[in-house]
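thought: fold this chain, then report.
action: predict
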Amino acid sequence: MKKGIFYAISFCTIFTVVACGGVREEINRTPLKTDQAGINEVKAEEKPKTQDVELTKTARKIEMTVSQIKQTITKKNTEIELKLELTNNSTQEQGVGANDFRIEADDGSEYRIDGTKINFGDVVAPKHTLKGSAYFTLPSTIKQVNLIYQPENKMEAAWKLDIK
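observation:
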């Protein structure tokens, strides 16, 4: 019994020493050469453009204002963040979320929110305001869109937005 325990401990010790004691590789310490023009091009491409706007519509006694449009242009897509302020002017709580909005592009295509980002949505108490962002991803070729508020089957408000 004692020999079995001794052999087990010896085996574990040898295994640990062999597994943890690796061969050290020589690290190449030569400085990396960078293509500065390529880096600047990527930085310029990803820099967001921001437009401050005050576009207000009312539907279901909710005053909805698009207050800012932020665009980040990549090689293939334009990522859009729409900052919205929603004020409930009714006497009852109302649920509003980014999923109630969609975009119709100038070419007739329809786009829903980007579900990979954190979009707004909550129940708004009477006389309170909900502020949040809705995110969309569009092809770079699109220059004008309609933001549509459609919580059910009927369109209740629309904004014409220019993508610059």
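thought: worth noting. Strands lie at 49-59, 62-73, 77-88, 94-97, 101-105, 110-111, 121-124, 129-139, 144-149, 157-162.
final: tokens above.
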